[in-house]
Amino acid sequence: MSKINKKYRILIISCTGGAGHIRAAEALHKTAQALKLPIHTEHYNILDFTPRFFSNLYAQTYINLVKFTPNFWSYFYNKLELKNYSKNHLIKIFDKITYKKYIHALFEYKPDAIICTHFLPYISISDELRKMKFNIPIFAATTDFDIHNMWIDPIVNKYFVFHKESMNRLIFKGVLKNKIVITGIPVMPEFKDKLTKSFARKLLNLEVDSFTILILSGGFGVGKIMSAVKYLNNHLKKFTNKKFNLLIVCGKNQKLLQKMSDIHYPSNIKPCIYGFVDNIHDLMDASDILISKSGGLTSSEAMAKNLPMLIFDPIPGQEVQNANLITEVGAGWKATNLKDLCYRLNQIIENPDLLKKAVKASKQLAKPEAAKKILKEVLSYLNKKG
Question: Which class would CATH give 8-189+368-385?
Fold first, then answer.
């Protein structure tokens, strides 16, 4: 990994703790490649520097917690909000052993700056880096509307956040205002431009004049999506004079994909069942409403596409906070259960003005050029630093 002449070398470090952290890092990396800026980026997953047993354990533990024991995850999330991670000496000793290879790599690569889309790449080794007089600036590109205490550490030079409310929460937690920049959450360049609904539907071979519902299960197929689709089927068939496109993205869950394909759909519904897709931006352009959990990246992508959300089954903690902000500004609705999901969807279908208002509200939260803004902020910092 040779030094790029006349360019700043920036490491973008993510973590497999939910798919959003990886997507945010990829968005930064892809945006950097498209921009004519004097920077060269490289993207790494911190878990690639750790022993395989730890990498597998960390990623799978998060998925299992949110999938099978969401209430325990909520307790864990809130508990960590009250506890100073850096004071847990047992964890710090474990981190020092686990991340030895990672620390060595940081010194070997000699980047000009590091952007982290997860707190683990810096919070786990911040004490060690300070002892080693590590003076390379570290930037935290947060990936939810709320900022958990785990993101906060003195080693961070600047925090990039989604919204003024996110900034205010960081200030309340003791972070200086001059260390916070409102940029949005980085999304792929494809979310900057929008297709017309009719063009996007033709592109995807959908019924052009049908009300189009997009349902996301999340990158790992987590959630109550099977029950939701069955309820929606029974509800939508009552609209005898209306047709629907039902786009269902199952992510990497092959069993879910097969089960969705085996469902009998009413004659007024055209189902389109997808596995893992790389054109979610096109699906969003084609859709009238998104039914999904409220992950930070998914929510940011939807807002960038001015696509209102009907939020269902959010993960306690960060996703609930994301949902709160979306509903507060009127860019979406939150369903408390399956019956409520159908009730709210019914209201949206029968009252087109509700949807128009939500589209308008989503534009207030849209930040499709967040990645570009973050990279320019880092470059400005480095230029001032000299």
Answer: alpha beta
pLDDT band at 4 (very low <50, low <70, confident <90, very high): very low
194-365 matches 8-189+368-385 in CATH topology? yes
Bridging pattern class, strands 269-274 and 156-161: unpaired
Strands 211-216 and 244-249: parallel
pTM exceeds 0.85: yes
Sheet holding 39-45, edge to edge: 39-45, 8-14, 113-116, 138-141, 156-161, 180-182
Angstrom distance (rounded) from CA 295 to CA 315 = 8
R_g over Cα of the chain: 21
In this predicted structure, the answer to whether residue 133 has a pLDDT above a threshold of 90 is no
Top pLDDT among 364 and 97 is at: 364
Domain coordinates in residue numbering, the chain: 8-189+368-385, 194-365
CATH number of 194-365: 3.40.50.2000
pLDDT digits (tens, 9 = 90+) for 239-293: 989 999 999 999 888 888 888 999 999 999 999 999 989 999 999 999 999 999 9
CB 204 within 8 A of CB 272: yes
- pLDDT by residue (tens digit) across 334-344? 999 999 999 99
